[in-house]
Amino acid sequence: MFLDEVEISIRAGKGGNGCVSFHREKYVVKGGPDGGNGGHGGNVLIRATANKNTLHHFKGVKLFAAKNGNGGEGGNRAGRAGQDLVLEVPVGTLILENGKLIVDLIQDGETFLATRGGLGGKGNANFCSSTRQLPRFAELGEPGEEKDLKLELKLLADVGIIGLPSVGKSTLISVVSAARPKIADYHFTTLTPNLGVVNHRGETFVVSDMPGLIKGASQGKGLGHQFLKHAERVRIFWHLVDSNSPKPLTDWRTIREELRKFNPELAQIPEVLVLSKADLAENNSLQKLAAKFGEKTDSKIFVISAPTHRGVEELLNFSLEILAQTKSTKPEVKKELPIFRPHMEAQSKAYAVKKKNKKLFIVTGPRIEQIAVMSNFANPEAVARVQDVLEKFGIGREIRRLGGAEGVKIEIAGKILVWWG
Question: Is the pLDDT higher at 28 or at 127?
């Protein structure tokens, strides 16, 4: 089943908790803290692959979560990092968040780091100092990032085959490529776009048919509105018109108008006019029809019969020439490496203090919020560390400047502590 739009939720793995442990060994006195760090949580990566052409494998699953990191252990043993989750999507998939495009995966193997796993908490061995020789606390693992995304597939093809139903689009793509679409003598035989790779004169290019185009397709009639967006990435059109139609010029104008209404830029894509089903028409009428079209359009005109291969090679030859002259519509690739962010020491000074009332102050800032989230406020020593950090960063001085005193409450990342002053 073809599916080209889906909404999903993704969640990176939580970091493992740091360990509180002290070295215990016979004949070793005061072995000291040896709690190991927790492992990082797994990332969620989205990777484009040429082996898929639909988003159907996402149907019915709303949440995709990477593995959590394992907790640290005694003996300075670090926890194992959580395994990354790799979601495969077809080449040409757009990733949107809150309606905004964040990445366009247009190359096979291109990978996007969608959400980062949480950092592993530091074990108590990391908090030894001359004034804190026996730390009985460790950091909690950081939660992984969560996002709601929309995946939208726009097929990548060099040539888009357009035309009214039953003009021979499926037959043509089956002749010029290895694609095997459903072919039958009734309208809307093709319900999904078909992709095929053409090998001709040592060159290759990708063709795709656009099913369901009828008058009113740009307003949602038929199936055209569902698939017209796939035409936005083609480099040239093969516009098929049934040479036996009672009103071939009207048929041609209908499709051109629907393209323009859906997206005016589609009307600017180079067009090759193809009069199909020549095996069912007389040569004289074909010549007259070609001449009539020549008066109405500057497009190159070919008369073909896909079943007998009449005119097909000439069409392919000309298409190779046009493709060599047109620029690819593929956007530039923006790489993002799947790396873990360190504890944000460089951003320690970035904070803001807001006085909500006489008894409550709200503190925000990337690093201080990270420390609060990774601190166990049920542990008095962990709270004491946060209090020390508030003074070290200058936050305590700012609270005093705003009228705060000992005993006021401070809210950081949704957690509340009573300030020592």
Answer: 127
